[in-house]
Amino acid sequence: xxxxxxxxxxxxxxxxxxxxxxxxxxxxxxxxxxxxxxxxxxxxxxxxxxxxxxxxxxxxxxxxxxxxxxxxxxxxxxxxxxxxxxxxxxxxxxxxxxxxxxxxxxxxxxxxxxxxxxxxxxxxxxxxxxxxxxxxxxxxxxxxxxxxxxxxxxxxxxxxxxxxxxxxxxxxxxxxxxxxxxxxxxxxxxxxxxxxxxxxxxxxxxxxxxxxxxxxxxxxxxxxxxxxxxxxxxxxxxxxxxxxxxxxxxxxxxxxxxxxxxxxxxxxxxxxxxxxxxxxxxxxxxxxxxxxxxxxxxxxxxxxxxxxxxxxxxxxxxxxxxxxxxxxxxxxxxxxxxxxxxxxxxxxxxxxxxxxxxxxxxxxxxxxxxxxxxxxxxxxxxxxxxxxxxxxxxxxxxxxxxxxxxxxxxx
Length: 411
Ligand SMILES: *Cc1c(COP(=O)(O)O)cnc(C)c1O
Prior knowledge:
Elements: H1 8-22, E1 39-42, E2 45-50, H2 62-75, H3 83-87, H4 90-103, E3 107-111, H5 114-125, E4 131-135, H6 140-149, E5 152-156, H7 161-170, E6 176-181, H8 193-202, E7 206-210, H9 225-228, E8 239-243, E9 253-257, H10 259-268, H11 270-273, H12 280-295, H13 297-316, E10 330-336, H14 338-350, E11 353-358, E12 368-373, H15 380-397
Parallel strand pairs: 2-11, 4-5, 4-6, 6-7, 7-8
Antiparallel strand pairs: 1-2, 3-9, 8-9, 10-12, 11-12
Helix pairs in contact: 2-12, 4-12, 5-6, 13-15
The structure holds pyridoxal-5'-phosphate (PLP).
Pyridoxal-5'-phosphate binds at residues 113-115, 118, 139, 141, 181, 185, 210, 212-213, 243, 245, 253.
């Protein structure tokens, strides 16, 4: 017999949802009825999209689409099995080779998503008795990977190399992994990679970089954060992880490194071994987008121009106090309150702009924000229009005090 509130597990669902609602943190999905691009159809309305990780405009590029279509004709759709069973095709092989070349490493290994790559890497490379040290603002998948590994997890203050060193000195010399995002996904700032590489070498720790948001965007040919930071020796960062669903515009992820690293992951990373291989046609589409990333440097140039333009505009109209420092297409305006961030997102949507509203637990408590993501395909006029809409928002909120909007919110 059920009680009135239903069985225990059902009550728990209701309690959790009630808690989410009480905190003003209920998340909903918007429904797109067309491709991911600058102008999107969302819930039946046209919105200017500042909410996508498709930084280079490749997710619906005609050549990438054609590559997917042609490869589906040749390979079919599903890979049919895990890589170690019968799912590993010539398309995967070619993409792994291309990614190894692109990143200047001996080999690369494909994973089905970045989330899975991070779980796989950390649980394969560390275990009980080992230590994993992570930047406090690392992506959730890196934190989850550390938990899954059963190693001791230590989080150091954001970008603080000296604090990391103190923590390294305090933990025993054993298997120690230092793990960082290359570009922080919700802040847009960069890890101090040269300093981290020097420290890791001095303390004999293994440095792991997740370059989900740097790959394709930073570096002369889109090689990513390491090239941007001048960290060219592969030995300085033995484990480099990248994702294919952001600037590359497709789907999936990879790890690049030495022959030994890749062989070890291939044998033991459970999220590689026990899952179906990516569709081979996606690997072919990614080969095409990788070529576009390398050849079409104008996309990075355009993107950088839009970053500069947006920041200049926001600074001129009084948002600068809330704008985090960032040279990347990720531009965050810290609003602090969850309610205020949600309100800002709704008002911008009414004005025709889609900007990400990011709230805890994705970001720390009290740092709810607008996350503006730029694309190489945004026009100057579109960026200016967003600045004007944000200017109007500020005026509406704080008419008298619009040039001092910080209101106690520190950045
Ligand atoms: C998006 C992201 C991931 C996860 O990649 P998916 O392919 O989307 O699963 C991992 N790390 C970082 C830093 C990311 O931003």
